[in-house]
Amino acid sequence: MKRVLIVSATMGEGHNATGRALEEAVRRQWPEAEVAWRDTLDVMGTGVGPLFRWIYVSNVRSTPWLYEYFYRSLWRHRWFATASKRFVGLWCGPRLGREIARYRPDLVLSTYPLGTAGLAWLRRHHRLPVPAGAWISDFAPHPFWVYGEIDLNLVMHECAVPPALACVPGAKVAVSAPPVRAGFRPGDATAARHRLGLPPEAFIALVSCGSLGFGDVEDAAKELLAAHPDVVPVVVCGRNEALRRRLRPLAAREPRLRLLGWTDEMPGYTVASDVVVTNAGGATGLEALACGRPVLMHRPIAAHGRANAELMERAGLAVVCARDGELAQAVRTLITQPDRWKAMAEAAQQHCDRTGTLADGLLALAGGSTSATRFSGEVRRPRG
């Protein structure tokens, strides 16, 4: 029986969402597998999780310039990236090593960069004898994500390979299928709308900015309502009840606006939508990609959000709407020029068709037969 350890972190829900998708894939590939989870921040010590979450939320909401400065410094100064990763590895590695020694897995899957730093430290110190892979759920890799000591760093698109190798030349990199739950796949939009009570002929814009509801969600809703009378915005507020309360007066005035809190129906709403509006490009962007839905990046958040948005746009999977009015204009363009919408949707679907399944990455990591393409050093185009 195969024993698999998933190393994640509760920093919002994105990293855990990737972990749940990997667990599903593990159980499909190896039905008798035993799967355990470790939260990196809990492993690092009491109080680390709440502190790091507070720092992250504060930076994104209040001091985005500081978050951007840290992110850019990782790219500009290799010594700074290396020192930061070594520091986190030293902090996390020995503690994570005790968990690995206790569980004795056959395979370790990381969905969180600080956890991967700990795994890299263990590998350097000959304390990680089993294969370890890192699923880089940000569309655009950054230096904290990629490690040369890890057996496989899995990125989300062919265009993400060069930046991953720029982070760590010679790292072992492969392109993964989007690590999303099985429910996120192309489906019947009409049936999904009927089941969810959405108008069948409307242009559905699903607004989802993660479990924390970051960013200018209210402005996005207003722009979408003003864009065209056929637009029905469906705003997922996640766990941000304050956002939901702020939007209720607008929803009372504009019955087209639908408000949701935390919901387990995200696969259905994504299939039912015409476009997905988000601002970071992590789990939400990958879910849209897996369902073949175009993405509109509205005022991307600092650092990794902007990098993800730029790379998704370069890949033909998203349109970046950074200024006032650009979101409304993008929606009008997609409504009046349906070929543009179709081209973006087809690009998403073709990418998913090329990358196969999550099992390919698991088999590549475990040493089994697979069609997954690996990159190391010189960049080559993937097969298929």
UniProtKB/TrEMBL annotation:
Top EC category:
transferase
GO molecular function, a single term: glycosyltransferase activity
Q: Where is it localised?
A: Membrane
Domain (Glycosyl transferase family 28 C-terminal): residue spans on this chain: 205-350
Pfam families on file? Glyco_tran_28_C, MGDG_synth
**What are the entry keywords?**
Glycosyltransferase, Transferase
| Enzyme Commission no | 2.4.-.-
Q: What Gene3D superfamilies does its record include?
A: Glycogen Phosphorylase B
Do you know which PANTHER family this protein is assigned to? Answer: MONOGALACTOSYLDIACYLGLYCEROL SYNTHASE (PTHR43025), MONOGALACTOSYLDIACYLGLYCEROL SYNTHASE 1, CHLOROPLASTIC (PTHR43025:SF3)
Instruction: Write out the similarity annotation.
Output: Belongs to the glycosyltransferase 28 family.
Protein known as: Glycosyltransferase
Species of the source: Amycolatopsis cynarae
